[in-house]
Amino acid sequence: MSIFEEWTLIRATEDYELLLERGASLESRDEEGALPIHDACAGGFIQIVQLLIDSAKTPEKVKHMLETTDSEGETPLHHAARGEHLDVVRLLLSTGASPKKTNNFGKTPAELSDKGTDVRGVLEAAEAEATSPDATDGK
């Protein structure tokens, strides 16, 4: 990452913090039905994704953000997977995002990532874990 890219990310994070302090909604949608977390995940902005998750305040609000879909039926995890943003994918999974949710075209987040990549491997492992008998038994 260049110094300019780093500076831009720091400024963007500060801007998000200021907007949230002034009461900006985590639920505002853009023209494609995406929440701010969708856009942050698509860009791979892990600091902003973490800030948005932290700003949700309750587990129910976090869950709602992670499960909300845009106009193509895609969750924030779909956006992070398509962009091959491994750290963001890991953060979303650790926060409770479902690797099994399909978009309007029947694609899981893993299917939107490139074959043979770390992102694909992490998502496929998470899918397998989510469908294992132990996962459904609550173990």
Automatic annotation (TrEMBL):
<dbReference type="GO" id="GO:0045732">
    <property type="term" value="P:positive regulation of protein catabolic process"/>
</dbReference>
<keyword id="KW-0040">ANK repeat</keyword>
<dbReference type="InterPro" id="IPR036770">
    <property type="entry name" value="Ankyrin_rpt-contain_sf"/>
</dbReference>
<dbReference type="GO" id="GO:0016567">
    <property type="term" value="P:protein ubiquitination"/>
</dbReference>
<comment type="similarity">
    <text>Belongs to the ankyrin SOCS box (ASB) family.</text>
</comment>
<dbReference type="InterPro" id="IPR051573">
    <property type="entry name" value="Ankyrin-SOCS_box_domain"/>
</dbReference>
<dbReference type="InterPro" id="IPR002110">
    <property type="entry name" value="Ankyrin_rpt"/>
</dbReference>
<feature type="compositionally biased region" description="Polar residues">
    <location>
        <begin position="97"/>
        <end position="106"/>
    </location>
</feature>
<feature type="region of interest" description="Disordered">
    <location>
        <begin position="97"/>
        <end position="139"/>
    </location>
</feature>
<feature type="repeat" description="ANK">
    <location>
        <begin position="72"/>
        <end position="104"/>
    </location>
</feature>
<protein>
    <submittedName>
        <fullName>Uncharacterized protein</fullName>
    </submittedName>
</protein>
<dbReference type="Pfam" id="PF12796">
    <property type="entry name" value="Ank_2"/>
</dbReference>
<keyword id="KW-0677">Repeat</keyword>
